[in-house]
């Protein structure tokens, strides 16, 4: 009974820190932006960033034999060349995170596209720190 209480309180499998969730969303956004910039062969001077994150749910599950937390919620974008309407638009997110080798390290899990009916494959991507997520300043 005590074990169930500890699980329910999040002491054994706690919710990831807000900064980790923000980093996961920002990393996914940066990956998407990089693909778009390559397609259009141009990058804006001011990149879009994640803001106003609201976590609505988190629960622990198992993916690929590893304990994983699924975190869901909403966020808004800021910066970049966004219009006011784009900035005020609420966007939903759903990310899967695993603990890394150290207490403070987290991994973002992304599904790997496979052409079969087997269970989906997952790729673990180390989350970048806030300084690694920022574009380089050439000046």
Brief account:
The protein has 139 residues and is α+β, with helices and mostly antiparallel strands.
What would you note in describing this structure?
- It is a single chain.
- With 139 residues, the protein is an alpha+beta fold.
- The chain is built from four helices and five strands.
- It has helices at 2-9, 18-40, 84-88, 130-133; strands spanning 48-63, 66-79, 91-99, 106-112, 121-126.
- It has a five-stranded antiparallel sheet with strand order 1-2-3-4-5.
Task: Give the helix/strand class.
Answer: alpha+beta
Unreliable stretches = 1-11, 130-139
Question: What string gives the helices and strands in order?
Answer: HHEEHEEEH
End-to-end separation in angstroms reads 59 Å
Percent in strands: 35-45%
The helix count comes to 4
**On the 0-100 scale, what is the average pLDDT?**
76
Relative helix content: 25-40%
The biggest sheet, with number of strands, parallel, antiparallel or mixed sense and barrel status, is: 5 strands, antiparallel
What is Rg? Answer: 17 Å
Write out the strand line-up for the largest beta sheet, numbering strands in chain order: 1-2-3-4-5
Looking at the structure, what is the overall shape?
globular
- Strand tally: 5
């Amino acid at each position: 009974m005590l074990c169930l209480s500890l699980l329910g309180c999040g002491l054994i499998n706690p919710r990831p820190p807000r900064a980790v969730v923000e980093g996961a969303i920002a990393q996914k956004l940066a990956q998407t932006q990089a693909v778009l910039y390559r397609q259009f062969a141009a990058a804006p001077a001011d990149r879009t960033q994640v803001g106003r994150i609201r976590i609505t749910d988190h629960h622990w599950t198992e993916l690929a034999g590893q304990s994983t937390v699924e975190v869901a919620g909403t966020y808004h974008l800021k910066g970049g060349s966004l219009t006011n309407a784009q900035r005020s638009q609420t966007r939903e997110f759903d990310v899967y995170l695993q603990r890394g080798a150290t207490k403070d390290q987290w991994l973002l899990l992304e599904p790997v596209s496979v052409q079969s009916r087997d269970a989906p494959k997952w790729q673990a991507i180390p989350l970048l720190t806030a300084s690694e997520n920022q574009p380089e300043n050439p000046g």
